[in-house]
Amino acid sequence: MKKLFRTALAATIALTLVACHDSDKKDPDPVPEVIVPTTLDITGQAVIGKLAGALVEVFNVDDLTTPIGTAAQTDANGDYAVTITDDEGNPIVGAYVVHVSADEDSTMVCSAITCGDVVRGELIPAADLTGLVLSTFTYSDGTGTIEADVNALTTMATDAILSAAEANENIDLSVVSQDGVASLQLSASQVVGSLLGLELAETNIFDVNIVDASVSADVPADDAITATLTLINASFSGLDSDAVAGRTNPSYANRSAMAGLGSVMAQYFTTFKAVVGILVATDAEVSNVSTEQLAVITSTQSQISQLVSDLSTLIGNDTGTPPVVVEVETEVDLEEIIEIIGEIETGTGGTTP
Fold it and tell me: How far apart are CA 90 and CA 147, in angstroms?
């Protein structure tokens, strides 16, 4: 019995000594948490004709004055890649606007039959592109990649979305969901289509593969909507600055600023956005559109209609198969556009934001 007691006592003493020894040890320093930054890669192509050497910037949709991420420049094919980083490792989610701005390093392929003194397939110099800014409206779902092409039509649709948000306090682009963005894109596509005389109820302009139309074989021959939108986009490079309404009118306030193709396109985009803002207002009236604004819209529309027809004929001669295109109206019916906007807002003729 004594032997058993001594054995138990020895074991107890041993355990006590071990406990005392362990209590003298310091707790190990906590391992610092390693934060892995998250990134968002945005890629795409800027094309009316391929726009090379242009500045690419990304903006949060609620701050269009402060670019985020790494600025980039389009390459010879108009392709770009921009990266946004969150150093705290948070998912990068939300709506963004991409701007592609022509500068002194930029050139653009002429994709119309002629672009001033430049013929189709040749390069329009930087001096003629001053003032040109293209844009697109896109959304990140947190997966880390976005493909966002930029062209004349995405610019118009982006301007339509921004105008609608400015006119409607119920549209908060800073918290819009992915489904909300898709809905806005569809609605904006309808507005752009209505101003161009096209029915785009089922078409999201942001998803259409619009190519450089300077190569006839690249223009789709059997997809009427894609071909038509591609030729409309290309026609912007062929706008005749001297034929744009107001340019030959001495009373036009911005006449001196409309010297080059880039300025002519910029003037049209600015006017388009202003007109959409007027038409989406709750008290929309055609009479609220100024004579100068209406002149810019209608004269440009007339040019686009003719340029699309001419390009279609030329491509048919080149390839032996003219692309199937939808007829583009020569005139703009603003009353019809107000009606279409009303149908979109009520959900009877489109998708509600």
Answer: 21
Q: Are 336 and 347 in contact (CB under 8 A)?
A: no
Q: Among candidates 52, 229, 210, which has minimal Cα distance to 123?
A: 52
Residue 252 predicted with pLDDT over 60: no
The residue extents of the domains of the chain are 38-346
Alpha carbons 48 and 196: distance in angstroms, whole number = 16
Global confidence as pTM = 0.85
Report CA 339 to chain centroid distance, whole Å: 26
Ramachandran sector of residue 98 (left: φ over 0; alpha: ψ -120 to 50; beta: rest) = beta
Residue 290 CA to residue 293 CA, distance in Å, equals 5
Asked whether the beta carbons of 155 and 136 are under 8 A apart, the reply is yes
Q: What are 161-211's pLDDT values in tens digits?
A: 998 888 888 888 999 999 999 999 999 999 999 889 898 888 999 999 999
Show Cβ contacts of residue 246 under 8 Å, excluding neighbours closer than 6 positions.
252, 254, 255, 258, 292, 295, 296
Closest Cα partner for 192 from 206, 182, 172?
A: 206
The pLDDT tens digits of the residues spanning 68-107 come to: 998 899 999 999 999 999 999 899 999 999 999 999 999 9
Q: How far is CA 52 from CA 47, 87, 119, 170, in A?
A: 9, 31, 17, 38
pLDDT tens digits, one per residue of 325-351: 999 988 888 888 888 777 665 444 343
- Which residues 6+ apart lie within 8 Å of 170 measured at CB? none
CA 115, CA 148: separation in Å to the nearest integer?
Answer: 26
Tell me how far apart the alpha carbons of residues 230 and 23 are, in angstroms, rounded to a whole number. Answer: 77
Q: What backbone torsions phi and psi does residue 283 show, to the nearest 5 degrees?
A: -105, 35
- Helix or strand holding residue 2 (H, E): helix 2-23
